[in-house]
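Appendix C: a fully annotated inverse folding record. The material below is reproduced so that readers can follow the format used throughout the book. The structure is listed first as tokens, followed by the designed sequence.
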């Protein structure tokens, strides 16, 4: 450890909790803050409330060593890390209320020399115009007295603990001193390179990464619709095209889910308006894909009096239990509302669902007339290929290819 000893992490979700527990095991005195008393109690027992490989062990070790404590209110620290959600409101307008309230919550605890880092994915300008602005209004000199920087999180759910250490980090301060101070902090525990820039560029960089992925998935999704019309196997097509040394098409699917890729491009569009034509088009292509799948299934179902459909998967992507913003979930809900079939719904990563009765996937496959593949979970990849020849299939993920 270097010159920083204590850290207060605001928000104990998918980013805040892994970060807080990692810092705890690296020897920092960490207070993790969350608005939910239940989350705080769970963590103080050394347990976790989210699913992520190896996070349970890390949290247990940080809590047992006394280096990580959770609380509903912040405490004084050398560094404050804000890792709260930045969702969007209606009309895809960014909702920065969590960033605002986290910033206001730390104001009474800030001392001269402190560093405040915003890790939440944020629209361009947030670090200056929300975080630093609030601190200035509260009488702090953000050029000399306290330091404010943005360091966007870039970890992939399912690989968070690996990527937290290995990924390169981008650090952009609202002043040169803030950039340098934040960069030297990350250099204490990150193995990847720590790249220095200004706050606006750091914000835009994170939005660019997720928009790049969104645009490329939209390209694959559009191809899948064109290929379906042409009776071309899109997965064979993509694997052939990708043999070109400078082509790397991503995979089509039922749509784009999760709370990052389907959200962050809107932060660019919100500020850029008409200038963001391609980024907006990509969002629209990806958001319209679930309806295309629903229409496909409806067309297949019309060939039966009342078919049984096995819906394979609800999560937003393979091998996670996260159903938020999941296109698979949206499709199953819409099919249920249409009431054109008996649905057998399968999701091997969860035990119960508040609205759906879940069926074990082998049983569902046995009983089904139509197999609807919505997520490429590892379990589904072990299904015998002959099963897919015997049944009518709508495979949105290409696992039967
Ligand atoms: N998807 C496809 N086809 C593909 C790849 C993904 O349809 O070829 C779909 C997935 O099924 C899923 C969605 O896209 O529904 C998003 O999944 P993902 O694995 O691409 O990304 P996330 O949302 O889990 O995590 C992303 C990552 N960003 C990038 O890869 C550029 C991660 O590094 C970020 O930290 C994270 O967003 C975030 O928090 O912003």
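Designed amino acids, in order:
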């Amino acid at each position: 450890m270097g010159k920083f000893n204590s850290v207060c992490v605001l928000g104990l979700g998918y980013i805040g909790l892994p970060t807080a527990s990692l810092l705890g095991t690296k020897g920092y005195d960490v207070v993790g803050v969350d608005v939910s008393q239940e989350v705080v109690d769970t963590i103080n027992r050394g347990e976790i409330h989210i699913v992520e490989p190896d996070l349970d062990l890390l949290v247990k070790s940080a809590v047992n060593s006394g280096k990580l404590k959770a609380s509903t209110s912040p405490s004084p620290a050398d560094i404050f890390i804000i890792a709260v959600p930045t969702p969007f409101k209606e009309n895809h307008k960014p909702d920065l209320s969590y960033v605002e309230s986290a910033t206001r919550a730390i104001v009474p605890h800030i001392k001269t020399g402190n560093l405040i880092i915003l890790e939440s994915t944020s629209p361009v300008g947030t670090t200056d115009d929300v975080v630093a602005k609030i601190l200035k209004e509260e009488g702090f000199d953000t050029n000399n007295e306290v330091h404010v920087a943005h360091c966007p999180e870039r970890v992939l759910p399912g690989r968070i603990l690996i990527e937290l250490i290995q990924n390169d980090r981008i650090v952009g301060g609202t002043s040169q001193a803030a950039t340098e101070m934040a960069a030297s902090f990350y250099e204490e525990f990150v193995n990847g390179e720590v790249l220095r820039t200004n706050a606006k560029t750091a914000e835009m960089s994170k939005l660019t990464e997720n928009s790049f992925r969104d645009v490329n998935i939209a390209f694959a999704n559009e191809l899948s619709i064109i290929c379906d019309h042409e009776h071309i196997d899109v997965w064979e097509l993509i694997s052939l095209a990708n043999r070109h040394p400078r082509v790397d098409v991503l995979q089509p699917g039922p749509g784009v889910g999760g709370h990052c890729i389907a959200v962050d491009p809107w932060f660019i569009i919100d500020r850029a308006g008409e200038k963001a034509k391609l980024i907006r088009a990509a969002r629209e292509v990806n958001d319209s894909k679930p309806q295309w799948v629903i229409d496909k299934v409806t067309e297949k179902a019309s060939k039966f009096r009342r078919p049984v459909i096995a819906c394979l998967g609800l999560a937003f992507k393979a091998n996670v239990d996260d159903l938020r913003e999941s296109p698979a979930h949206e499709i199953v809900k819409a099919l249920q509302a249409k009431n054109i079939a008996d649905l057998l719904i399968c999701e091997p990563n969860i035990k119960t669902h508040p609205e759906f009765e879940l069926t074990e996937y082998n049983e569902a496959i046995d009983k089904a007339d139509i197999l609807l593949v919505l997520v490429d979970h590892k379990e589904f990849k072990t299904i015998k290929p002959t099963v897919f020849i015997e049944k009518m299939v709508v495979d949105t993920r290409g696992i039967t290819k």
